[in-house]
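Q: Sequence in, structure out?
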Amino acid sequence: MYRKFATNWYVGVCQQFQQIKLKSFNEFSEKTAPIYFQLDEGNSSGLGLGLLFDSRTNLLNPKPKEAYISVQAIGFAKVLGSDYRFALLDLDMRYYQKLTTKSLMAYQIFGQMRTPDAPYRMLGLLGGPMILRGYYQGRFRDNQLIASQFEYRWRFHKWFGLTAFGAVGNVFNFDNPEQSGALKSAAGLGLRILVDPQENSFMRFDFALSRNEDFGFYVSFGEAF
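A: Exactly. Output:
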């Protein structure tokens, strides 16, 4: 819940709640015990503050020279009904730069930080249809996440557009930095089909290939960011 205090600037209160119920874990063993206890039942309930800058006029298809910045800091505690005590900080920055009358470049920097006691389901995770397309969502997760991506968007016809995109990122833990592995990267191409001329909104068809030779095909309404 945000309140505007200046042109395109907002400040407000943020709340997150997640409940996990685990019926069974058939592969429980001494080796999988640490994962089992991370997946155990529990509530994550937190409250915090958010700062937002948003000059976009179309959330699904932003225009050149528009920008978006979101910072959220949330604390989770028993007094809020949480079974876990931890804190998180999320950052999302986006900018859209005009190239020609029919093309633009879109940039995004995305970060998530969690304190060491954060439960498994609340950790930062890479992959999926929005960030680092080409990786399965959640294949890589840890307490800290940093990623960036870009898109070249070209509208070559009234009803159609093409997109080329690339992304890099990783998850890591300050206590065990050696476990983060190599930097993850992915790239791909996409087709855009105009489905709502009045709102200038597209259907998105993306194919992405990751550095690990995984791939993903995504169909969605609106741009990835």
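The chain has a mean pLDDT of 91.
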